[in-house]
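Let's do one together. I've listed all components of the complex below, 588 residues spread over two lines.
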Amino acid sequence: MSITARLEGALAAALEAVDGAGRPPRLSAAMAHAVFPGGARVRPRLTLAVARACGCDDLELSLGAAVSIELLHCASLVHDDLPCFDDAPLRRGRPSVHRAYGERLAVLCGDALIVLAFQALGAAAARSPQRLAPLLARIASGVGMPMGIVAGQAWECEPQVVLRDYQRAKTGALFAAATAAGALSAGADATPWLALGEALGEAYQVADDIRDVAASPQLLGKPVGRDRALGRPNMAQELGLDGAIALFTRQIRHALDAIPACPGAADLRSLVLLEAERLLPEMEPPLEHAARVA
Amino acid sequence: MSITARLEGALAAALEAVDGAGRPPRLSAAMAHAVFPGGARVRPRLTLAVARACGCDDLELSLGAAVSIELLHCASLVHDDLPCFDDAPLRRGRPSVHRAYGERLAVLCGDALIVLAFQALGAAAARSPQRLAPLLARIASGVGMPMGIVAGQAWECEPQVVLRDYQRAKTGALFAAATAAGALSAGADATPWLALGEALGEAYQVADDIRDVAASPQLLGKPVGRDRALGRPNMAQELGLDGAIALFTRQIRHALDAIPACPGAADLRSLVLLEAERLLPEMEPPLEHAARVA
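Okay, and this is what the predicted structure of the assembly comes out as:
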């Protein structure tokens, strides 16, 4: 079975596990709407790729960690789209959860997905119970306080923004958690894998900023120009398009450099380059260069 | 040190653990506002009382479970108070989190408290790692889908309400998780403790309905008459005040009957009776009767 099929199956199983008798049906439907059909599933695929590179010996736990990371990502999108934040009408080319199910169910859907992320992680730890506490801590640090994605979002509510903390927390933290969780789920040390996650997270943040300025809403499946409209920091506005593209290329190079020597290094390099091309298709020539020098 | 002091200390320590460099300061402040000063801390005290009755051999883990339960309760209050739900201006006699910090920080505060609940639980499991997965599953089931407090809140968004599922999930689930978590944190079987939590949860829901109809906002520290204003089911409206009070007394009696035979039974009985009197002071005579017959 392909990794994609396994991952979608594990996500579906996590939702089914809490879809029993007694549940409020519209909340169930809102949760499924938030998770399926998904985006590129980059973070959980990264978790699984790192787990494989570390000699994955408990696929159930690695899948549980990947599912947990993806559910937290989906939860953050649902809450980011709320009227009090972006008030986004679209997500992945469809109505956002609050447009489809109302604001109250969108708040509860995000809450329930956060809880489900930890339920799925715990349920997957039967064979390796001693790995659960460090995994839980690492995944939670990617989403909570002081420097996870919720903290990153909260910087938008501060009178003075520490830009570096904002950027890192907003995207980098969950990517770093994704690589670290892959290693921990395989019983390996997480430390050597953090830099890869952080570099990829920073590249994603810049790519997101570039697309918010330069892409079309049809291409993105969500509105563009939101950062300027909402007065949020955006690297492509700050550095200019060329400057932001140069920064993106540099960060992808950092990500490639950060892959530790391991049997799975070549696969991980391919994954990073494929993602980079998917993020900014026009970047192909500089990325080929990055691949050569890396 | 008293249980109250230990519990407040453990809650403060959980918040301090994520209050490090790099955190957005207003989100930190909002989280502290949501947790301190607290209410009666009934759920976590119940967790600790059951842990003691089960021969608590890992106080750190029992405190971690109690803290986790209380943080989830605080998170649910912050989200319940949001403009799209109750739009409550007051909570515990002070401005609600969204009135004090704005709606966006209130959403993020609830999210961060949910994550912190699982962080605190994981961090407390160092000495008993094999107890973490069942504790995590039980606590999460009290708050998530299909029948936790988030599901209970979601019944308010359904076109047709299954009243029994709504009442149980809205309050009973987290009480049942509180007693079960106390047992699990002490390495004991959770099953004999669920009925006590469920009965107490049902009693709390009815007491809340009675006070929503009959109390003054000064006494409650929050607005009254909200159920009628928001078109929500309320037992005191459905059964009349006398009927609801009789139901409350019956449920307290069920709770007393549900306490398993154990060395801590007398202490637990006192805790239940004290809580009942605190909830509905005018109920003293029937409760004394309940205590005699129990």
